[in-house]
Amino acid sequence: MVMTSIDEATPAGRKAAGVALFHLLGVGYAAGTTRILPTLNLTIPAGRFVALIGHNGSGKSTLLSLLARQCRPSEGEILLDDRPMNSLGQRAFACRVGWLPQHPPLAATMTVAEVARFGRYPWRGPFARYRADDHQAIADALEQVGLAGMADRAMASLSGGERQRAWLAMLLAQEPSCLLLDEPTAALDLKHQIEVLQLLRRLREERNLTIVMAIHDIGMAARFADHMIALKDGRPVFDGSPDALLGPGVLSKIFDLPIGTIRPRADGPSVVYPL
Amino acid sequence: MTGTSQPAFRLALVALLLAAIGALATGAGWDPRITLDSMRLGLFDPPQSVFAAVLFHYATLPRIVVALASGAALGLAGAVMQQVLRNPLASPTTLGVSAGAQFALALAALSGSAASVLPRAMWSFVGALAAAGLVYGIGRRHRFDPARLALGGMAITLLLSSASATLVLFNEQRLAFLFLWGSGHLAQSDWSAATIILPSCILAFGALIAAARLIALLAIGDSVAGGVGVKTETARLVILLVAVAVTAIVVSQIGIVGFVGLAIPAIVRLCRPRSVAATLIASAGLGALALFAADALAQLLSQWSGKLVPAGAVTALFGAPILFALLSRARLASRPDTATAPAAGRFFSPGTRLFVALFIALVVLVTIALTVGRSGIAWTSLDPSRDGALFMARLPRVIGALFAGGAIALAGLLIQKIVGNDLASPELLGISNGAAAAIVFAALTLGVLSRAALLVYGFAGAIGAALIVLWFARRHRDQAAAILLAGIALGVFLDAMVRIALANASMEANALLTWMSGSTLLVSLPEALALGLLLAGATTAIILCRRPLALLALGDAVPAALGLKVRLTQTGALGLAAVLASAATMVIGPLSFVGLIAPHLARLVMARRLPEQVVATLFFGAIVMVGSDWIGRVAMVPWQVPGGLVAGLLGSLGFLALTCRRTAPVAGA
C-alpha cells in the first residue's frame, strides 16, 4: 500500500506537498447516524488531472460533493487555496469550482444552448447582460464537446451521450479553474469516452485546470489522468502516480480481488484485467 | 432506535394514538342511558321494551361498525391507488370518485320523481363509478402514464365540483343536504349501511392483499413488471376497479370522507413499512381507527357545540395537521413521475403572431363584455356615450376580472416553477382557501359584512396560509410532492372549517357561497386599478428575475453549484405568488382554477421560454376570466352566475380536453 508519508495536518507538511488546491483537514461526513466518510486528511494538488477510484460505496461521490460544497462536512475543515472554503460567496465559488453530478437533471424542455448558457450564471448573476465574451465562451464550449451543430436541439431528443456532453458544455462555459466530475464517462460509448477524456486532458494542459473525476474504468483513468487517489470504505488507500497504481499487487489490495496489468506496447496504454 | 422494529414501532404508536383518541372521545360522549346491562341486551336482538338497548343496537353499534369499515376501505383504496399509479397524490378524492358521487346525487335530488326508480345511494354509486371510468378512459389514452392519469382525475374532479357548486347555488333549498353529505356524516338508524359496507370492505381487503405481489410490481414500474410477465394494463385495471368500487360503495352510504384516502396512506408511507402487503394492512388498520376516532370526536363536538359537526370534516380538521407535522419531520419516499415529454428534435417557437392574436382576442372580449348585455331573451348593445352610468357600472367589474385573472394565472405559473410540478396552483396549495376561510369566519362570528373589512380579513387569511406553505417549502425545498401534499392538506383543513361553519349557518351561507364562487359584482374601480398596478409590478419583477427562475427547473443541486441561492429564490417567488393569489382571490373567489389552467394553456401554445410563458399565461388568465364573467352575466338572465364559477367550469372542461390529447404539449414546466 503506497501512501504519501507527509503529514498533511501541519502547515509545514502542506507546503511540502507542493501547490495544493484543496486541503481536507480531519474531514468526516455522516448522514444521520450512518458514517459515510471517516475522518480523513487529503490533498488535491493544483493543476493536475486527478482520478478518484474505488469500489461502489467507497465514498467517491461523497468526497466530490464535499469539495463542491453540496454538503457540509460533519467535522473538520476543507481549505481551498489555503483559505476556508466557505469564505467564498456562492457565485464566487461557482466561478472557481464547477461540479457535475452523476445524474444531471433531465431538463427535457430546454435546448442544448440554453443548458450551456446556464454556465455563465456565476459570472453574470441574475441581472447583468451577457456580453460578447459570454456568448463566445458558450459557443466555444459547444464546439469543444462537438455539439455546435445541435445547439437548438431539445435535450429530450438527445441520446444519453449527447446529453452528458451538453452538461459538460455547461461546465466548460462556466470556465472554472477546477472541475469536479462524478463519473463523466458512465453514459458514453467507447469512442465518446476517449473523446471526453482527451478533451479533459487537453483542457488541463491548455487552461491549467485542476480536474477531479470519479471513474470506475481504471485502465482509462490511468491512461488519461496524471494523479490517482483510491478510496476504500471512505479511507484513502492510495495517493500517487498512475504508474505506481498499476505496479504489482497494488490494485489487488485496493479491490480485494486478484487483478493483473499488462502493457502490450512499451509506449502504449496498460490493460487492467481481473485474474 | 434503529433496526427492524422501527417501522412497526412508529405505526403502532400512530395506531395507539388514534385508538386512544377514539376511545376517550367515545367515552366522553357516551349516552349515559346506555349501561353495560343494556349493551348486553342490545348486542344481538334487543327487546323492544328497553329503549337504551334499542338505541345501542340500532344507533351506536352500527355507527361504530360503519366508521371502522369505511375508514379501513378508504385507507386501503387510497394506498392501492397510490401504489398502482405510482403517485403519492392519488386518492379517491383526486381520482374523481367522490366528485362523481356528489354530482350524481345532486342531479338525482333535482330531477325528483324521475330519479326515484333508484335509491339515493345507488345514484351516487353510479356517479362515482362513471367518474372513475372517465378518468380511466383518459389514462388509457396515455397508456396509463401515472402523471396523465392523475391530471385527468384532477380535471374530472374540478369539472364535477364546479357543476355541483352551480347546481347548489341555484337550488339552495333543495340541495342544502349536500353540504352535510359532502362532509361525511355517519349517523345510523339501522344496520342497512353497515351490512353493505362491512362485507364489501372485507371482500376488497382479501382481494387486494392477495394481489399484494402484483401491486408491488406495478409500483416499481411497468417496464419491470412487464419484463417479469405481468399483463400490466389488465392487472392495473382490475386492481383499480376493486379499489374504486369499494370507495364508491362507502361514499354512496356515508358521503365524502376524502381525507382518509389521501392522508392515511401518506402517514403509513412516512413510517416506511417494509413491504406492500404491510403498507396495505397498515393503511386499512389506521384508516379504520382514524375514521372511528374522527367520528367519536365529531359526536363529542356536536354535543358540546349543539351544532352538527360531520365526521368527514373532523378527519380533515385533525388529519391535516397530523399529516402536516409528519411531513415536516420525515422525507416522502416517492414523488410523482413527471410527464414524459415526447422527443421532438427542435422546439417550435410561437413567435410574435401568438401574442398579437392573444392581444386581439382580449381586446375583442373586453369590448364585448363592456357593451353586450342581455335583458330577457333580447340581446342589448350598450353605447357608452349614451348610457354612461351603466358603462361605468360595468367597467370596474370587467377590469377587475381582467386583472384578477391575470394575477391568479401568474401566481399559478410561479408556483408551478417553484414546486416543479404542473399540478401545483394557488387553489391547490390552500392559499385561496386561506382567504375564503378567513372571510367566512369573519362574516359568521363577527358579523362583519362590509366590503373593506372582508378585504382585510381575506388578505390576512391568504397571507397566513401562504406563510405556512412558505415555511413548509423552506424546510422541504427538494420535496415537490411533500409540498403539494402539505398544501392540499392545508386547503382541505381550511375547507373543512368552512364546511362546518356553513353546515350550521344556512341563512348567511348563500351570500357567502356567492362570494366564494367568485362574484365580481362587488369590485370598485380603485380596487381594480390597484390590482392592475400590483400585477404590472409583479410581471416586471418576474421578467427581470427570469434567469434565476429558469434555473429553478434544474432542481436543487445544479443551480446551487452554479451559485444560485436556491432557497432565497424560491422564498421570494412564493411570497410574490401569495400576494398575487390573495389579491385575486378577493375578486374571483377560491374556486376559479384559472391559476392551474392558464399556465397549461400557455404551454399548449408552445410558449416555452420564461418571458413568453409569463406573457401568454397573463393573457390566457385575463381572457378566461373576462370571458367567464361575461358568460356568467348573460347566460342565465335574470340570475348572475359568478364569474369564478363559470371559469371553474370552463377551465376544467378545457383542462379535460388538454389531458385527453394524445401527445402532451412540449413546453417548459
UniProtKB/TrEMBL annotation, chain B:
GO MF annotation terms: transmembrane transporter activity
Membrane topology: Multi-pass membrane protein
Transmembrane annotation, as ranges: 51-77, 89-109, 121-139, 151-171, 191-209, 214-231, 237-264, 276-302, 308-327, 354-377, 397-416, 428-448, 454-473, 480-502, 522-544, 549-568, 574-602, 614-631, 637-658
Superkingdom of the source species: Bacteria
Record Gene3D superfamilies: ABC transporter involved in vitamin B12 uptake, BtuC (1.10.3470.10)
First-listed, main subcellular location of the protein, grouped into a coarse class: membrane
Keyword Cell membrane: yes
Keyword Transport in annotation: yes
GO BP term, pick one: siderophore-iron import into cell
A cellular component term, taken from the record's GO annotations: plasma membrane
Alphabetized UniProt keyword annotations: Cell membrane, Membrane, Transmembrane, Transmembrane helix, Transport
NCBIfam families to which the protein is assigned, alphabetical: PRK10577.1-2 (NF007866)
Protein family: Belongs to the binding-protein-dependent transport system permease family. FecCD subfamily.
Protein name, as recorded: Fe(3+)-hydroxamate ABC transporter permease FhuB
Organism: Jiella flava
Name of encoding gene: fhuB
